[in-house]
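tool_call: predict_structure(chain=1)
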Amino acid sequence: MVDQRSLVDRAKQGDHDAFAALVHGSIGRLDVAARLILRDPELARDAVQDALFRAWRDLRALRDPDRFDAWLYRLVVNACLDQLRRRGHRAIEVEIGEIHVATEPDPASEIADRDLVDGVLRRLDPRGRAIVVLHYYVGMPLTDVAGVLGIPVGTVKSRLHRALGDMRATFPPDVTADGLRIPERTLA
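tool_result:
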């Protein structure tokens, strides 16, 4: 099996197959992150495509091949933010994909919970939404989120704290984390 460092080195030399092998396993995760940030599947596909084009074009500028995945997420987040700037921050109605849950809830309750989380995420500013998505949905540690976004860890923590506070304030008073079938740490 070929390691990521050698694939990056080969891709830097213009090897299209090496680049394809690098991004093949990441496209699904990149698309999910972009959909959660943009709230629109078509815009998400455009953002991922734009990020992959930028990755191919700017690959020679990548100094640390071991950071390729974080660099790629950074390109996707930046492409998402570019899309939002171009669209003028209009509210977009989309359906959130399945949220992984520990137990099997009834379908009506699951749909209601998903709609509630979708509404809460929709109200966050794009930068806060990007941090919530990268940390809670993609599973990145805050240090990696900081690296992807190119901002200090303290800034990530304060933006995450603000975003989570905004999320808590958006939930109806009678809804608690126990009442929703979403990960507890999403609200912590």
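agent: Confidence is low (pLDDT under 50) at residues 177-188. Proceeding to next step.
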